[in-house]
Amino acid sequence: MTSVRWLVALALLLVLPLVLPSFLVVVMTEIAIVALFATAFNLLMGFGGMVSFGHAAYFALGAYAAALLVKQAAWPMPLALATAPFVAAAGALFFGFFIVRLTQTYFAMLSLAFAQIVFTVLFKWKTLTGGDDGILNVWPPPALKSPLAYCYFTFAVAGLAMLALRAIVDSPFGYALRAIRENPRRARFIGVNVRRHQLFAFVLSGFFSGLAGGLFAFFNGSVFPDFAYLNKSFEPLVVVLLGGIQSFFGPLAGAVGFKILETFIARQWPVYWPLFLGSAVVLVVVALPQGFVGLLQRRSWRIRAAR
Amino acid sequence: MRPRLRSTLAGIGVVALLGVLPGPDRAGAQPKPIKIGEINSYSGVATVYTFPYKEGLALATKEINDAGGVLGRPLEFIHRDDKLKPDEAVKAARELVLQDKVDFLAGCISSSVGLAISAYAKDTKILYFATHCQTSRLTWDDGHRYIAHTTNNVNQYVRVAAKKAATLPIKKWANISPDYEYGHNMWEEFSTYLKKLKPDVEFVQLNWPKLGESDHSSYITALLQSGAEGLFSSVWGAQSIAFVKQARPFGLFEKMRLVAPSVGNPDELDPLGKEAPVGAIATPFAWYDAGLHKRHPKLEAWTKKYTEWATAKGLKDPQPKLGASWGYASAYIIAEAIKRAKSTDTEKVIGVLSEGFEMDFPWGTVVMRGCDQQALPPQWLGVVKLDAQGKPFATDIEEIQGKEVARSCEEVKDLRAAAAAKQKK
Amino acid sequence: MDAVTSLFPWITNGPLIVVQVMSGLSVAMFLFLVSVGMSLIFGVTRIVNLAHGSFYMVGAYLMVTLVETLPAHQAMFWVALVLAPLGVGLLGGVIEVTLLRRIYHREPLLQLILTFGLILVIGTLVLLVWGPDNKSVARPDALAGSVRIFGQPFPSYYLLVLGLAPVVAIALWIVFYRTRWGMLIRAATVDREMLGALGVDVATLYTQVFIFGSWLAGLGGALSAPTVAVALGMDSDVLTTAFVVVVIGGLGSFAGSFISALLVGELQSFGILVFPAVSIVLLFAIMAVVLIVRPWGLLGRPEE
Lengths: 307, 425, 304
Prior knowledge:
The complex is a heterotrimer of chains A (307), B (425) and C (304). Chain A is mostly helical and 307 residues long. Chain A has 15 helices and no strands. Chain B contains 16 helices and 15 strands. Chain B has helices spanning 3-20, 47-66, 86-98, 111-124, 154-167, 181-197, 217-224, 237-247, 252-255, 266-272, 290-295, 299-312, 322-341, 346-355, 402-405, 409-424; strands at residues 34-40, 75-81, 104-107, 128-130, 147-149, 172-176, 202-207, 230-233, 257-259, 281-282, 357-361, 364-369, 374-376, 378-386, 392-401. In chain B, strand 14 and strand 15 (392-401) form a beta hairpin. Chain B is globular. With 304 residues, chain C is an all-alpha fold. Chain C has a two-stranded antiparallel ribbon. In chain C, helix 2 (14-45) packs parallel to helix 6 and helix 3 packs parallel to helix 5 (108-130). Chains in contact: A-B, A-C, B-C. The interface between B and C is large, with 48 and 54 residues.
């Protein structure tokens, strides 16, 4: 992306929250959080070639860590938010150790199993987590409370995180990861420690997922065990698919697209929303292999060729 | 056009579209409607309850508006789907408050959703009318002035069941309830009240299948060995149907008397058919009961009216289920509160609610209690039997007023204090 | 801890243990019926069919409709039991031909996502066609009661399941190992390309396998309809369980599915009694343990 594009995007991000109605500011905040979660997830899936069905576990660990630190330990919100990703990363390290030993479907299923275990712990350990009543009244400090303020805050935090992820993806580590995705055996031959790279990617992915979870906790004002449940794990999967797996900004595009669809359709016809979403997913797989981003890229390819 | 510029413009276009997106223009409607943001579960498994509830709400709204509306303004419910997830509900609540600028919030079927919306309402200082969800924590432990509950909570119908259970010559009780907040709440209310009424009862076994469990054989085998003479069950819906179907051939209901509040309702009895647990004690809304009709002369006409309405709206099963009565009552209670306040100002309406009032419905008088803004409708007890055609129904209906069994205002105050103390820690 | 002692003091009660084992077996047999279809489809086409639970659900709902619309005669239950799975097989065939055929060459992830999309579509269609209300199928009178096993009552209907599943298992074995079609299927699990090179119409074989797998799922749904509530949400419950059973057994392994179903059925039955607190996660805990010890399931093979 040229610097012009960057500036335009930055300008938009700064100006839009001021001019758009409050409700849309809230939607944009949510898009930013979902985009961060999806990009973290895509680090593992698109760049690492590892599909996880249990990523919601790290999202939830981050959310609960942030919530508990603020409510039980009375930490200030920024500190709690900064610590949350580390808790999630610790979880990712522990579970990841077992998970990266497996491949493909088994990898996905074991990650799911661990996510369900996290869910169960959150659900059953009532004295600590409140069980299915959740932890309520987890609000950001007054300065950040208004939709506008929290939106800018989220943009800043998520934006920095995305920059970090971008740096990771473009680093030698990122390229090694891609090599592993393409052909693990060859990567091993050239001296890449496959297991260790995969585990590290898993932990990084968990770290940023936890950050998204922390941001979400304060956005939502409460945390619940179902943050770790199966449907939450499928969210980034669908978003990344819609947006495009292979590109870095695919998940962001997917998050925007998904939210627009959801706002237009799920609001009006809640009964039909799953039908629509399912059909859209089927359609995208059959007709649009590169997702939305791919759609844009393809047309620009054609135009370029025509000149 | 240069490709990069093209995609950038496309991006801007998309975002601008977002800005233009707000809902349909409402400038044409006059006078300005009173808007209630209603959040509930309108997709997936909860629809068996929320579809009739929504129609009850819609019927009442139409009646209210046909009679001139509230304060001369039409009542309008804007519905949003929470997908049974508390965070979706909070999102929807935000949208309704910020975007649609609703005057009040309403809704919920899942207890955790209700609690989440309640926290948001308290924080935003907007009044929330909890409707279909049942946890007593809403107005008691976690209650505050920005929440009112327009239907009974768990406490009332469970205590009514416990009252009946206390009259039975049964000392040993077992429990089977789903392992989540609602299930634990139900058992706690039942067991403590039963113990109070009949101190010599013994609780011999507690079973906590996971919510939505499909195979209960292990629990059934355990129950068969528990030595219990009575079984309290708060599994509901599809799980209740599965449990009853599975337990019957094991002879469980010959060994112990079943007390299951939800099993007397048509949404569980009808699918069970001749496999229904005959003799079970439940707390159903037996809209068809002749005794109930005699006691409440307006009930029969109401059930006819609702059935016609629901059929016209395309509901596959148009009979007036409990949820329908809840939706109907909720709309009227909200309207009444606004009427009495003579304004839609939140503080004024809270003022009315905190004083409390009573309303008559085709099925009896509902007391909206002032100290906790909690509705206390009539409760019913029934026994499951099969009719001549082998179709199950609830009969021997007894009516007990909710206010007779509900926790007192003092008890509520204590509960709130205890919960607040736990929060402080 | 109370629950542990009070749920399992009858550990020395022989007859009850037998009954509990048999209950666990009937659960295992249901699981086997559903998961073997999923395992089969994966073994041949390499597609993890997430819509398998939806097929099961459609089988159960079709059973409800058939029992309601067919003349009210006891024999009609059996007719419905035969027809419902056929309906599901047909549905599977349609899906395979119109959608799956286009994506066989794609990445496994995309195939997975497509079948996930199908879950949403089929789920909503079921809601629209049958409505939100819970439904049920009555057990046929002949099997509505119970028999006595060592003096303990045991539902007769479960005897049907216990009897049917081994029959199905043996029939499947015969099909796979004693028919030409079965041989083609086994060959396809090993090397499809070679099979195609040898002149076999692999595309048609895939369709047949998918129909067969869907038929099995539908049979599972139709058979289980009289023991549970036929309601929305059945699909995700069954899918999760079936997927776990298949993974534990090893994807693509027929024998693995059988052993895994038995293991899971019995472990869950007794696990619930010994560790009631973890009933929510017991299934996944079992899978986690198996996968940590045997990364490709009990009898699975390393994927390419």
